[in-house]
Design a protein that fits this description.
Elements (H helix, E strand, L loop, with lengths): L1 E4 L6 E4 L5 E5 L8 E2 L2 E2 L30 E4 L5 E5 L17 E8 L7 E9 L2 E3 L5 E3 L1 E9 L2 E7 L15 E7 L32 E7 L3 H5 L17 E9 L8 E9 L7 E3 L2 E3 L11 E7 L7
Antiparallel strand pairs: 1-2, 2-3, 4-5, 6-7, 7-8, 8-9, 10-11, 12-13, 13-14, 14-15, 16-17, 17-20, 18-19
Amino acid sequence: SMFISDEYGPNIYRFSADGHLLSATQPPAALVPMRHGTPNFASDNPGPGAAEPDPKDPDTGRQNNQGLEGMAMTPDGKFLIAVLQSAARQDGGDSGSTRQNTRALVYDTSDLAHLKLAHEYVVPLPVFKDAKGKTKVAAQSEIVALSDKSFLMLARDSGNGQGLKGDASLYRQVNVVDLSTATDIAGGAFDGADRPVAPKGVVDPSVTPAKLTPFIDINDSAELGRFGLHNGAPNDQDNLSEKWEAMSVVSVLDAKLPDDYFLFVANDNDFLAQDGFQVGAPYKAEDGANVDTMFLVYQVTLPGLAKK
């Protein structure tokens, strides 16, 4: 069977290998999108003829399209970690400049049919300055679990890259997230929508967030240049695209380097193609955009991972 996380719920679903839904797990109430006191999973992108949600954004819970974007099983198979893409509405997620403090949910998988929330932590997302000097938050797009206390997290900016008007990304990095000294808030008052853990983006003084350590700068010009790639102008086929949203690690299978792994980082081309076919009809992306699916592969050292 397999687990799939949902950025709209935000829920976690378990499917059989032949595609049948086996179970669904809802996160704590603090993350469920609420409008007028009722769960409402609209994301303000109504289809043809559909009404827009009222209000446009949830009152509390996950922000539109900012659900469980990253999820991974720990190497020992005992835990499943899911991370909200950015802060919940009541935790500063109602503003692009204060949505830094997201949450990581750690589920016990001893009973695959009934996931149990074992731990929950506040995770500070990276911040950066835009071209106008304004503080922005880099939402996370993917994680790789290293243990139940640490994971790799890919965070990035948006609106810049191949196929878009903005050519240069200001932030694309893989970070190491350490949960070992963070406050476990699972099952406490902060799991209710009426008790923000980071009102206006400021973490409650009783809570210690996880620690974030930069690991890989995907925009590193020297590294990209080794393979004929770049970040920024000219905005051509060799410029990195906007959405880097997949990661995985595999051993290099070298007995002399037992702690070395290949870290695969892949993009989402966002259906930007000139010969696309969708909803029963062919299409061409605007401005001639034709973005390839791409994998970047890094050799990294992750001490002790093989023993976990």
